[in-house]
Specification:
With 243 residues, the protein is of the alpha/beta class. It has one domain: Rossmann fold (3-Layer(aba) Sandwich). 31% of the residues lie in helices and 17% in strands. The protein has 7 helices and 10 strands. α7 links the parallel β9 and β10. The two termini are 13 Å apart. It binds 2-amino-2-deoxy-6-O-phosphono-alpha-D-glucopyranose (GLP).
């Protein structure tokens, strides 16, 4: 595990974009595992600028996203498909046919998860998986549990997660209670894993996840065992650990 401490969110975003750009430069047809949430937005802005400058090229890149709310369609501004289109895809030269997000509109969870697993298997090894972290230690939507789920599955979101995400919806009742998410085994199979974390509200969970025991009760803690895990976090998010 390597930790890159940054001054603030902007600094974190630039440094995370450096890591992603390096992978894209080395392997133009790489597979990127992508994440949503407020943490990676700045990273995506940096990638958009670099693409506009001609420094990186998305034309041969394939993407697989971590998760999607169950029941939200592509045009719902809270769906993760919409997030990816608005915050990255429509601003870069990616072929939309090479972008993948779980199908939130498939009501049959088994079908939706099986279909996404097939996509994941067909694209081959993920070269870089980008992650944020939830306040309860979730990655993707892998919530605290008694075991580490392997592949794509349907989750009941925890109260903490629903409350944290309520800020994006008109009312708390509008927040979906279920989601489809890539499993921990898939995330751990990525060649490189890059997490971005920012802000004092993430300090406790960062300390627990990466300086505490590895346990499915803190899903992100498993990343301590990944052979190439990089945490890019700002001073505030690292304020509860001694580096
Ligand atoms: C959601 C997403 C996660 C994300 C988390 C934290 O629950 N499913 O992938 O990491 O939120 O979001 P933020 O970066 O806004 O704190």
């Amino acid at each position: 595990m390597r930790i890159i401490k940054t001054k603030d969110y902007d600094d974190m975003s630039r440094k995370a974009a450096n890591v992603i750009s390096a992978v894209m430069t080395e392997k133009p047809n790489c597979v990127l595992g992508l994440a949503t949430g407020s943490s990676p937005i700045g990273t995506y802005k940096n990638l958009i600028e670099r693409c506009a400058n001609g420094d990186i090229d998305f034309s041969q890149v394939t993407t697989v996203n971590l998760d999607e709310y169950k029941g939200l369609d592509h045009e719902n501004d809270q769906s993760y498909y919409y997030f990816m289109r608005e915050n990255l895809f429509k601003h870069v030269n990616i072929d939309m046919n090479n972008t993948n997000v779980p199908n939130g509109m498939e009501p049959d969870a088994e079908k939706a998860c099986e279909a996404y697993n097939e996509i994941i298997h067909s694209v081959g090894q993920i070269d870089l998986q980008l992650l944020g972290i939830g306040h309860d230690g979730h990655i993707g939507f892998n919530e605290p549990a008694d075991y580490f789920p392997k592949e794509t599955h349907c989750v009941d979101l925890t109260e903490t997660t629903i409350n944290a995400n309520a800020r994006f919806f008109a009312t708390k009742e509008d927040v979906p209670t279920q989601a489809y998410t890539m499993g921990i085994q898939t995330i751990m199979s990525a060649k490189k894993v890059l997490m971005v974390a920012s802000g004092a509200d993430k300090a406790d969970i960062i300390a627990q996840a990466f300086f505490g025991p590895v346990t499915p009760q803190v899903p992100a803690s498993i990343l301590q065992f990944h052979p190439d895990f990089i945490l890019v976090a700002d001073e505030a998010a690292l304020s509860k650990v001694n580096l």
